[in-house]
Amino acid sequence: MKQHVSSTVNGEQMEFLCEPDETLLEALRDRLNLTGTKEGCGTGDCGACSVLLDGTLVCSCLVFAPEIEGRELTTVEGIASPEALHPVQRKLLEHAALQCGICTPGVVVAAKALLDANPNPSEEETRYWLAGNLCRCTGYDKIIRAVLDAAAEMRGAAP
Amino acid sequence: MSEAVDFRYIGTRPVRPDGLDKVTGRANFGADFTLPGMLHGRFLRSPHAHARILNIDLEAALAVPGVKAIVTGKDFPEVEPGDIQGGEGAGDYHDLAVNVMARDKVLYHGHAVAAVAATSVRAAEQAIRAIKVEYEVLPAVLDIDSAMAANAPLLHEQLYTEGLPEKPARPSNVAQVMESTRGDIEAGFAEADVIIERTYITPTVHQGYIEPHACVARWGQDEQSLIWCATQGSFDVRSMTARVLGLNVSRLKVIPSEIGGGFGGKTTIYLEPVAIMLSRRSGRPVKLVMTREEVFRASGPASASKIKLKIGARKDGSLTAMYAWLGYEAGAFKGSPMVPGVMCVFAPYDVPAFKAEGYDVLVNKPKVAAYRAPGAPQALFATESAMDELARELGMDPIELRLKNAVRDGSQAAYGPKFNSIGLEACLEAARAHPNYQRPLEPGQGRGVAVGFWFNVGMQSSAEIHVNEDGTATVIEGNPDIGGSRASMALMAAEELCIPYENVRVVVADTESAGFTNVTGGSRVTFATGMAVIEAARDIISQLKQRAAALWNVDEDMVDWVDGKVVPKPGINVEAEPMSLADMAAESAKTGGPLLGRASLNARGAGPAFSVNLCDVAVDPETGKVDVLSFTAIQDAGKAIHPSYVEGQMQGGAVQGIGWALNEEYVYNGDGVMENAGFLDYRIPVASDLPMIDTQILEVPNPGHPYGVRGVGETPIVAPLAAVANAVSAATGLRMTELPLSPPRIVAALEAAKG
Predict the structure, then answer these.
(1) Domain boundary among A26, A49, A78
(2) % of chain A residues with pLDDT over 90
(3) Coil, helix or strand at residue B105
(4) Hey, is the C-beta of B209 within 8 angstroms of any chain A C-beta?
(5) Does B2 have pLDDT greater than 60?
């Protein structure tokens, strides 16, 4: 028996029907056509499916879709404003911090969550915060630099 | 040598053309396509490493509600043997077909036995569980030694070793042997004052791309089929799928999605023929997506290896002889990277006598696929570990020892040709002068040095450039953009046409819209497809000159292309305003129609790429944990088109190599079942494991490319294995010869040394 779920996704009220044991990742991709959230493992190890649930960073493959009933969800599609990219997105591009780009949506969401919680993270704090986001292309160097640069810009600090 | 001295755009670092799509979630990867009426497919995979399939009972599975089609090996045609053309790894079309779907035997745990298409993933999974297969379990061979043992169980009863003077009397698990030799090694070893002799072991590892294999296929009753998939080579998917299904290539159209990493692992096919067959049987489009577990168990990891190496040198450090015995696991079908391993094992050194013998060995594991410089990381792990040990024995600086023996311009490469314009010495000099080589080390820390090398390839590429009516340009090419290649293509087109980078868009087109193009692999795209883009732009410039000559009523050779404009040559007396690409585009109707440039080529002259890596580690003697304190990658990239993406290749390759050295391995139980088929237990490096990866790009121009470009992407993974192992050996005082250098292995080595 399918369940009816109603929640706020990227600022918009949304409703859908899903299986009780369907993951949030499946519902996002297959019911709401929000395919920016990626599946790399399905077991909560790679972070490619990172989303913000009431502002908290979670792997959407580890959340059942019915659990978002009445809650607020932000996916990678909801990070930029119509006018401009989020500084994390812009800095990732400026630093060439993506190669294939499959981990990038998860990195964007996780890094935004970091800077929401801690506007001035150290390199070490940034590395530990993003330790749940696997990237196989970049060796993380440029990702870490881009996030630290975005943090500095958001604080209004000199580059 | 490079023709253009002052570049406008080459060497700058603009944002990639597809950047916005990739930071906002708009980019469509392999699993992101859906079609109306699409079914979802799942596989039944072998629970045994080696077994005969006696019977498959589909009755209960076909009765599951929502099931629309089930296929097994019986549904696929017999495919004649034949070497796979154009891919990156070695292989055979018959084997490819049997790997895609098992026929009479399963040859590894995870081998596909059946596939179901149903209206939902859940229904497909339910049907998979309802399929009953009767197996006769056979003994399995799981490593090189047991596969080569006398009376070893055979994977293929009809496989006879190739490469021997005559066909052997009995079949074997050794698919091929190869020997490469120069000079008299016995005399060479007799002249040596010091000899190092060791056996080096590396495990099966996986490329570890984050995107699992995925495709959507649609069969048409007119026999025209469409495939959307994530691949490194859409033309390779087309030719391989056509061969497996017995179709001609014009019946298939392959549309490449964005690709979420490949590193060689997406140069072959697993899903596509099965998806087509399920679509044919059901009359509906079918999507197949691997789980992460399936990626580990049933795609193509990289070869485990066993390499016995012996090197001899005089007291002054000059090498007298080198010998290598290289065994590479191919998995269940022939075609390990043994051949490139044999060819590259001595490539960095000028040695008067050497002999390398290689063995391509079948084992009951998934058929290996290419992984970034296939075969070289294993081979140079051995060579560069031995060179490090030799330097210690001689009391020489390890860089000094390598400089003494390094190949340079004019050296005869161990694999054949004479080197011309190579950067090994320059990399070694840069490493010696690098501040990271001078930093004092504390107790418990160690520093490792190692050299990396890859041949690089050229192969076939096509490119078209369409000039739009306002003078902007669209580049059409056929290499999926796996690491920023659209940016490189746009930079090269902008450079030639003298138009802003932002005015060039690059389209990675499907197999019916781009000219034939070989795989995104072999570090060839920026080199070879880039060359096609440059030639296509030059085709346009030549047309501009013809058209200007006609407009001005002068001979074509009286027109020049200077600073982005056609101009009359100095001294030509004609009323003519210089005209830019935009000016000419606006006049296209009067001058012969739309401007379109094109080029197709088989690129020669891919310059080989050398690197030197420095690695500092600290080893915790209680836990055996290794911390990488600093890592420095120095590489000859030829001309760096977009330096940030060159650095990115160097950093990414370094970290994959660090993972290979420290953590990564397929852990098998005695029955040939991989016990760590997930990212939790197959642990690739994460951000908190690592320092920044320092890079230094050297630009020794490749004479085989108009701008001096040489391949970049593969060399970076070659040196790190030995650089890390040499650093750990230095820190512990114990020679480390088996990877990965995981905490238990290091603790065991330290305990054993204590006695």
Answers:
(1) A78
(2) 97
(3) strand
(4) yes
(5) no
**What is the topology classification, in CATH, of domain B19-26+458-603?**
Aldehyde Oxidoreductase; domain 4 (3.30.365)
Q: Tell me what the mean pLDDT of segment A137-155 comes to.
A: 98
Best B13, B34, B647, B686 residue to mutate vs chain A (most A CBs within 10 Å): B686
> Which residues in chain A are closer than 8 Å to B686, comparing Cβ atoms?
131-132, 134, 140
Domain extent, residue A54, equals: 3-78
**β partners of residue B328:** B305, B360
pLDDT, position B755? 80
Q: What ipTM goes with this model?
A: 0.98
Separation of CA A9 from chain center: 13
Listed by number, the residues of chain A in 115-154 with a beta carbon closer than 8 Å to a beta carbon of chain B are: 124, 126-128, 130-145
Instruction: Compute the average pLDDT of residues B445-456.
Output: 98
Cβ atoms of B156 and B362 closer than 8 Å: yes
Strands B305-313 and B286-289: unpaired
Closest CA to B131 of B183, B60, B68: B60
| Angle at B266 (CA atoms; ends B10, A26), nearest 5 degrees | 105
Q: Assign B4 a pLDDT band (cuts: 50, 70, 90).
A: very low
Chain B CA closest to residue A92: B23
pTM above 0.90? Answer: yes
**Alpha carbon separation from B535 to B265, B318, B528 (Å, rounded):** 30, 45, 11
Neighbour-count burial for B434-465, b at 16+ CB within 10 Å, e otherwise = bebbeeeeeeebbbbbbbbbbbbbbbbbbbbb
Residue B365 · residue B332 · CB < 8 Å: yes
Query: Can you point out the beta strands (E) in B273-414?
Result: 286-289, 305-313, 319-331, 354-362
What does the mean pLDDT of chain B come to? 96
Cβ-based neighbours of B380, under 8 Å, separated by 6 or more: B344, B345, B348, B450, B451, B452, B453, B718, B719, B721, B722
Distance CA B52, CA B134 (A): 9
List pLDDT tens digits, range B339-380: 999 999 999 999 999 999 999 999 999 999 999 999 999 999
Strand ordering across the sheet containing B286-289: B67-72, B112-118, B39-45, B286-289, B214-218, B225-229, B252-256
Q: B297 CB contacts (<8 Å, ≥6 apart)?
A: B45, B108, B109, B110, B366, B674, B677
Q: Please name the residue of chain B whose CA is at the shortest distance from the CA of residue A107.
A: B23
- The SS3 of residue B212 is coil
Q: What is the pLDDT of residues B273-291, one digit of tens each?
A: 999 999 999 999 999 999 9
Joined tokens for residue B53: 């399939």
**What residue of A is the nearest CA neighbor of B208?**
A136
Q: Are B528 and B606 in contact (CB under 8 A)?
A: yes
CA distances from B70 to B43, B56, B58, B250, B412 (A): 10, 11, 8, 26, 56
The domain total for chain A is 2
Q: Which residue of B lies nearest to A102 if distances are taken between CA atoms? A: B260
Same structural domain for residues A22 and A72?
Answer: yes
Q: Hey, which residues does B466 pair with through a beta bridge?
A: B474, B596
CATH superfamily of the domain spanning B33-138+211-260+266-298: Aldehyde oxidase/xanthine dehydrogenase, a/b hammerhead (3.90.1170.50)
Rounded to whole angstroms, how far apart are CA atoms B321 and B187?
8
Residues of A in contact with B32 (CB under 8 A): 29, 35
CATH 3.30.365.10 fits B305-456+607-754, yes or no: yes
Q: Please, are residues B58 and B109 in contact by the beta-carbon 8 Å criterion?
A: no
Measured distance CA(A142)–CA(A131) in Å, rounded? 14
Compute the distance between CA of residue A133 and CA of residue A44 in angstroms, rounded to an integer. Answer: 10
- Cα–Cα nearest to B208, from B628, B658, B670, B626: B658
Q: What stretch of H or E contains B182?
A: strand B174-182
A92 and A63 share a domain?
no
